[in-house]
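Review form for a predicted model. The reviewer records the input and the model, then writes brief findings.
Reviewer: anonymous (R2)
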Amino acid sequence: MTESEIKNVIDRVLERDFEIDPSMLNPEASLFSDFELDSLDVVDLIVALEKAFSFKIRTEQAQGFRDVRTLRDLYSTVKKLHDKISGEPQKE
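Model under review:
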């Protein structure tokens, strides 16, 4: 998947599952202050991303989400994880 495709899937998950207004979905948006997500929401987000991308995020892989603060961070983290799981080379 391309970075753009991953971004679109993540945006849809945030809109649908977390009722985030699409106009707020910019790369610099903070998951915590702008979207008002908390640590339990992050767990729900990981589960929603597993379903959306049809892969299982193991505990050690989920640790990568600890440093995610902005939407840009989330796009990047999921792209790296997707590429690792699927064996696809990283493309920009």
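Findings: The mean pLDDT is 90.
Further findings: The chain has one domain: 3-86.
Recommendation: see findings above.
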